[in-house]
Amino acid sequence: MNGQLIAKTGDSGALSLPLSTQSLRGLALFSHVQPCNSRLSGQHLLRECGGVRRTRSRMIQEVIPQAGGGYSRERMSTSAIRANRIGALLDTKRERMAQSGISADSGAVEAGPAEHADWMRAIAEERSRAAFARLFAHFAPRIKAYLMRSGSDEGGAEELVQEAMLTVWRRAESFDVKQASVATWMFTIARNKRIDAYRRTKRPELDPQDPALAPQPEPMQDDSVGEGETADAIREAIATLPDEQAEMLRLAFFEDMAHSEIAEHTGLPLGTVKSRLRLAITKMRGLVDEELK
Amino acid sequence: MTAQHTQKTDMHGGETGAGHLPTHHLSDELLLDYSAGTTDEAVGVLIATHLTLCPSCRVRAEQLDAVGGAMLDDLAPREVAEDAFTQLIARLDEPEAVEASPLQDDRQRGMPEMPTNAGESHVLPRVLQRYVGENPAAIAWTPLGLGVEQFELPVTGGARAVMLRVPAGRAVPQHTHEGNEYVIVLQGAFRDEAGRFGRGDVEIADGDVDHRPVADAGADCICLAVMDGPLRLTSLFGRALNRFVSL
Lengths: 293, 247
Fold this sequence. Notes:
The structure holds two protein chains of two kinds. Chain A is mainly α. Chain A has helices spanning 21-30, 43-49, 56-63, 78-90, 92-99, 113-126, 129-149, 154-170, 182-198, 227-240, 243-254, 259-266, 270-291. Chain A is 58% helix and 0% strand. The longest helix of chain A has 22 residues, at 270-291. Chain B is an alpha+beta fold. Helices cover 28% and strands 19% of the residues of chain B. In chain B, the strands form three sheets. Chain B has a six-stranded antiparallel β-sheet, with helices on one face.
């Protein structure tokens, strides 16, 4: 029962692929150059293309060493590239779009919450393996990083990443973008896998079908602020937290440490750890409320 | 009174009734640990029980999950194995393995039998029913002394979870705590120096709290108590008993 707090049957809407601003920029770039025959995303890849026809593998080889350029933390791994290639090949719709010069973001720099939600919709409604490939390319390396940071060894992390992505595939229909962002849902799935595996117990969770569940009172059901805006507001709020508060939050979320262990690890008094965390959460909530006004 | 936890208490709580919502809530600290997945199983059961009964804490819990999600998205990625995706694709079509029956696992852990018409009683949230059964009256209570009864939940981890039944009007002996104590009320109510705690309310108490909770008249008070350290009796009489009593 992963991600119960946010799992709900989504409403089915028409599948549309909104053009992100990056896609439009890509289109402009392509308007005067030969099609690169590349469906790999990344503004850097398009730029490298430079209007000269190249084989895809040559382009990849050229671009990858520089993948550090615009996004210092990420190299496109070969498996991510392969995932993107498979995705592109399998999805004729996106192939048509790619041939017309629109770059379908596949998990490198540009993919944000809106793109993630598009992929989820494609997975849920069309069982699109292309979209799943993109989701994998973006989230699998991050889930692996999360699991290893919280104490998993590499093999165990790889295993759990597979389990988590499998769950995503199987439960895609239950994801509701109005309830939470894709990243939030992925986090809860990965977290629950971690608890199952390493704490040898399932995480106790409320049952959404529980007759004892106290319903939201009317005023709180106001849907004018969607979960998407809230997720964006939270990301912004975290970015503006003082470093030591943000770092404390990261330790709390990702290092699988009790507060006393964080105190030991950082050498700070327990009281400081607790108050920093409390301040971080209060500040974050205040910023989110401000954002959403 | 509680030094480590800043508990949230609504000023305008309603009286008991069908629509009564809790006024004593989970702390940010507890919700953070629950969202991060670092709570002991006992604490998790108590938290999920409160969340069932408290919509505003559910919102706070969801916000913290969103914090986890935002930070996950910002993590420096670790490259996955070359064939990871191809392996995964190959598994998409395999039939979903039937999850090891939770019932089997539960029986091994000594969980109570669930009646076949589960879902009839609304008193205990389902997350708690899994550990104590559906019907509070049918719990295998054992006497604790002074009319108070208890039932120990089969949980793993460093914290204990105990159902308590305190007869109407009766007091729990004066005590303090060597660790933290979290108590959620499922039926009836109790009062102590921190206020009145009715259905869904959570009291958070640590070593700075020395209290003698008294059950309200009119109904037995049934609650779930979670402790990550032993209790210490502190009344004159109680102190003499401490070495003989393990609480």
